Amino acid sequence: MAQTRRWLDARLKSRANRLPSDILLLGLAAFACPTLAQAEDIVDIDYRLEGPAPLAGGDGQPAGDAPPPQPVAIYGPTPSGESAAPVRNSRYDSFGEQVGAVKWEVAGIAAYMTITQIAVTHETTSFHFQDEGWFGKSTTNLGVDKLTHAYNSYLLAELLNARIGRKSGDRSSGALTAAVLASGLMIYSELYDAHKVSSGFSIQDVLFNTGGAAFSVLRNTVPGLKDKLDFRLLLMPNSDIYTFKGKEHYEQQRFMLALTLAGFDQFRETPWRFVELHVGYHASGFTAKDKAKGEDPRRRIFFGVGLNLKELFFKSPQSRVGRAAGSVLDYIQIPYTAIHVE
């Protein structure tokens, strides 16, 4: 029993150290759920009924001086050339009803946060604040951890909004509710830091959590913005390919805004639709290995041009897997598919 308990404790500690990565993987796996029920899956069936045929003579020809037969009358709605839009369900108009629509998702995320935080919280103290700074060279991770908070909150808001939208039939009405819930979940996680000896409740973290959720609201409520602007994470491979924890994990991360020209009418039918414009931030030289080598901390804003893989490979996917893969590309930048300069 003791051996089993030690094994379980070690596993939970490992998962807790990977919490930001797990939130990312959870979001990428789950926010694609609405793509599984999009209109592309709907098969148009013609339920219209043919009208009565004109009377004919014995030889099968129109009797007497009857006019030539007219086209057969069709009764019923004429199917449009486009897939039917989701039907809006007014049942989910209020904040409380929208919260109820995702209660199990919220409960599951909160439970996961609780388990992982308890696993790594041993030395505790009373509630206290800690000033972690912003993006200064004296900060622990040069601000990359702050953008991680913003991105995680943004991803949770996108996930919850997608789930609300799937039930309500309206992709924008639940954006504010989803943002409030995402911010609340992130604050709940921050409360554990507030009781750890090694950390504290960080106002900076809370503000970036709120900022990430607020960007999700803008992206889902401003007409056309979702087709034009993405908040993405680029993970540059290192010697371990991917590091799950520690400063090396933060050093891999590059956060960016991607402006997709395919979202603009004037570029939609031109080769420019395959082009994206990037601006982002990353930092280096702040790990223990970097400091041992005598490297100075470096903060970099980068600009670049990228290839719109979603437009190239998943513009009109016919399968659920294709739609899910296209959705993932709204949140993840694939390495080596863009040229960036600092």
Tell me what you see in this structure:
With 342 residues, the chain is an alpha+beta fold. It has two domains: 92-222, no CATH class; 223-342, no CATH class. It has helices spanning 2-17, 19-30, 95-101, 103-120, 144-168, 175-193, 203-221, 225-228, 246-252, 288-292, 309-313, 320-328; strands at 49-50, 74-75, 229-235, 253-260, 275-284, 298-307, 332-333, 338-341. It has a six-stranded mixed beta sheet. The longest helix is centred in the middle third of the chain and has 25 residues, at 144-168. Keywords: Signal. InterPro entries: DUF2279_periplasmic_lipo. Residues 53-88 are annotated as: Disordered. It holds the Pfam family DUF2279.
Write the layout of secondary structure elements.
Elements: H1 2-17, H2 19-30, E1 49-50, E2 74-75, H3 95-101, H4 103-120, H5 144-168, H6 175-193, H7 203-221, H8 225-228, E3 229-235, H9 246-252, E4 253-260, E5 275-284, H10 288-292, E6 298-307, H11 309-313, H12 320-328, E7 332-333, E8 338-341
Parallel strand pairs: 3-7
Antiparallel strand pairs: 1-2, 3-4, 4-5, 5-6, 6-8
Helix pairs in contact: 1-4, 2-5, 4-6, 5-6, 5-7, 6-7
Organism: Edaphosphingomonas haloaromaticamans
Signal peptide: 1-39
Keywords: Signal
